[in-house]
Design a protein that fits this description.
2 copies of one chain form a homodimer.
Chain A: H1 3-34, H2 38-48, E1 54-56, H3 57-64, H4 68-80, E2 86-90, E3 98-102, H5 104-124, H6 127-141
Antiparallel strand pairs in A: 1-3, 2-3
Helix pairs in contact in A: 1-5, 1-6, 2-5, 3-4
The structure holds a DNA duplex (30 and 30 nucleotides).
DNA sequence: TTATAATACATGCATGAGCATGCATTTAAT
DNA sequence: ATTAAATGCATGCTCATGCATGTATTATAA
């Protein structure tokens, strides 16, 4: 466990903590203000910026970063709430696929949730810590990592 | 959804994707090479760098970033495997607390897993994308964000 | 001392996630 | 045209997690 690997470790742990805590804050605010989970928001957001505001499940997988089954159920659950933000219909060019499309109601809701999202991001992102964590990792992993570049 | 907020969003999404994919790679390698989950590794790692190589559950909560119940069960499951890397004993100064201590067997296993961890981190960390994502977020969130600092 | 509150961990329960698999549809091979 | 393989989504199962709560211990108040 050398100096360098330790820096790499510290940087990664710090980055992970930051990601976790900001994501928790986002989840919390989206939940209380819009009754959405973070993944609900990602789902609707990616639809809102997609051409024709519709995507097949497969496309959502990589965007949201969930497994195929998880996306299938995420959309199912959301649709089952009956809030009318989503609509699913079989893709006519390939009847195996299913399109998930954003409705006008959904568009408005996404826009509102987006504002919340960005606000919380601005407020809760620990900029200095994030920059420090990343710099630590990059410095440690650089070719000439012999030099002591740590601030403290 | 202005230019600036969009940059913030893009940066956050990129950061999240990076964290997810690297964590998945770490999990995968730890699982195949050491039969540990990522949280298993974090647990044993934090013990290995703790004074006397032991910690109370409460201390592990914030370190690992899990709830109290999740940590309780994480330790329980690990101990229940009977691989002898962990030992739990009631804290004598405060009999409500439980110490989770690393054994010598555990120390050796952590050292091996640590090497794997750092190697995967070095190999799979997308440095340029990470730096770009963070810079995007910081630039967008900076006071003088009028200036166009985006590369494309 | 005794009663009340606070603390630390364990556990029942509900939920979301991944894996393996099933079903329907499309594509490729013959 | 027929058959086999591949693709896209749904679903049964298991498991890890968070919340609410229970239990044991310690701290505080009277």
């Amino acid at each position: 466990m050398s100096q360098e690997t330790n820096g790499m470790m510290e940087g990664w742990l710090a980055l992970t903590q930051i990601q976790l805590s900001v994501a928790a804050k986002l989840e919390q605010e989206l939940q209380s203000k819009h009754n959405w989970s973070l993944n609900d928001f990602y789902l609707l957001y990616f639809l809102s910026v997609a051409p024709d505001k519709k995507l097949r499940l497969q496309q959502l997988e990589t965007m949201i970063g969930l497994s195929q089954s998880a996306v299938s159920r995420l959309v199912s659950r959301f649709e089952a709430r009956g809030c009318g933000a989503l609509r699913r219909h079989v893709c006519e060019e390939d009847r195996r696929s299913v399109y998930t499309a954003l409705t006008e109601i959904g568009e408005a809701e996404v826009a509102a949730a987006y504002d919340t999202f960005i606000r919380v991001l601005r407020e809760s992102l620990p900029e200095r810590e994030l920059e420090a964590a990343v710099e630590t990792m990059l410095a440690v992993n650089a070719p000439a990592s012999e030099a002591n570049v740590s601030g403290d």
